[in-house]
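explain this chain.
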Amino acid sequence: MVLDMPSPAILFWGPEQTQIYNDGYAVILGPRHPRAFGMPYRQAWPDTYPLIHPWMRHVLDNGGHEPARRLRATDAGRGATLVALTGYGQAAEREKAAQAGFDHYMVKPPDPVALRRLLAAVAPAPH
């Protein structure tokens, strides 16, 4: 699914955060592409790993509500589209996500058609 998305997309898979990305994200990787495809995040991005990995670990261990609130408090975060992808579908969890600033809420595993529609709707227009 990541490979077919019209906008840049990356998936970090497993405990090593193996990178799987599409052609759009290859542009973001610059000279790291194509070597970075299938490479662990830490190895592909040694310069940003110390800054980003603790945040990623926090989200995986504790959920994304607090990082979403912090992001929404920044100039860049006010315009971002946040999608909660979670294993919890209860109304109370959906409300917590909305209060934290998430724009959309999807329960795992997401319906591939619904996910593609959502990503297409929020993707920036091509230049």
Observations:
- The two ends are 23 Å apart (CA to CA).
- The chain has two domains: 1-62, 69-127.
- Residues 20 and 49 are 17 Å apart (CA to CA).
- The chain is about 45% helix and 15% strand.
